[in-house]
Recover the amino acids of this structure.
């Protein structure tokens, strides 16, 4: 199911030239998203995009329209019956268009690894002879500083948002739960990302949770399964810090609705979803999340 970004605003004193690079915090975003069903291991690619529009309350001429894209290699490996390793290698494409012009920054992002342990795997039949299955995975991992993080020291607050990486080793806590009742199911996940500082700048810690309801339709041969799905995502991000001091007008939360589809073939899965905000309060209501989306092609083994 991958994560919402946050605005950082730089307000200078009245005796200085005014500068405002309003943008979403692309490098700080983190969202796992739904996973394909696989027995042993999978490998594929995902495309993600997210867009934001921002405008200063104190001066409406100061604005920013931001579009962040990521092309990601991802993979998973089940080790025995109880362990699972997941990896993510992104290439980020960032574009910010503001009253000061257009800025772009592309490059390899921060690689992440997660190790999960299965603590629940249960199958049974209820009183109505319907098959019920449950799985619960719990784990954690690391995000490595493989993406470039080199903001200008003078403008580090706005420029930190437009970097390919965050410059820090961060920690990830993760849980995934799936419930099947015949052809219906619920897939949910919760993750918490603990960020560390780089260049005296600290992206706020992030909490994400999502739940998707889906229904499976199988072909006559049973080799193809179509799973339309719909769900909700909630994201909360703490305020950023510079030199251990809170950066004003950063942090916030958002609730998004999502709809999509997963198509599973014998050894391949294709999926997509689109996300739109239901409610949000980001950066003191000066940034608005617009449309987000995801598309993946994954090979199952």
């Amino acid at each position: 199911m991958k994560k919402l970004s946050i605005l950082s605003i730089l307000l200078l004193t009245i005796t200085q030239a005014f500068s405002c690079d309003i943008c979403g915090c692309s490098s700080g975003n983190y969202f796992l998203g739904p996973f394909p069903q696989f027995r042993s291991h999978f490998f594929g690619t995902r495309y993600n995009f997210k867009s934001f529009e921002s405008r200063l309350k104190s001066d409406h001429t100061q604005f920013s329209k931001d579009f962040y894209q990521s092309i990601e290699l991802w993979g998973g490996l089940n080790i025995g019956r109880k362990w699972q390793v997941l990896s993510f290698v992104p290439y980020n494409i960032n574009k910010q268009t503001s009253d000061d012009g257009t800025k772009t920054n592309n490059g390899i992002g921060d690689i992440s690894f997660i190790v999960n342990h299965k603590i629940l795997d249960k199958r049974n039949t209820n009183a109505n002879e319907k098959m019920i299955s449950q799985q619960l995975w719990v784990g954690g991992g690391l995000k490595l500083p493989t993406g470039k993080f080199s903001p200008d020291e003078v403008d580090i607050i706005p420029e930190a948002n437009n970097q390919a990486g965050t410059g820090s080793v961060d920690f990830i806590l993760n849980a995934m739960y799936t419930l099947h009742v015949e052809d219906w199911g619920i897939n949910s996940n919760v993750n918490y990302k603990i960020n560390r500082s780089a260049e005296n700048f600290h992206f706020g810690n992030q909490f994400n949770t999502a739940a998707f309801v889906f229904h499976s339709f199988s072909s006559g041969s049973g080799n193809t399964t179509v799973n339309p799905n719909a769900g909700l995502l909630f994201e909360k991000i703490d305020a950023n810090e510079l030199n251990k001091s809170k950066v004003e007008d950063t942090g916030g939360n958002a609730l998004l609705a999502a709809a999509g589809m997963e198509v599973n073939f014998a050894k391949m899965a294709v999926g997509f979803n689109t996300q739109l905000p239901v409610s949000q309060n980001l950066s003191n209501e000066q940034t608005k999340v617009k449309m987000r989306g995801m598309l993946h092609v994954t090979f199952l083994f």
Notes: The chain has one helix and 18 strands.
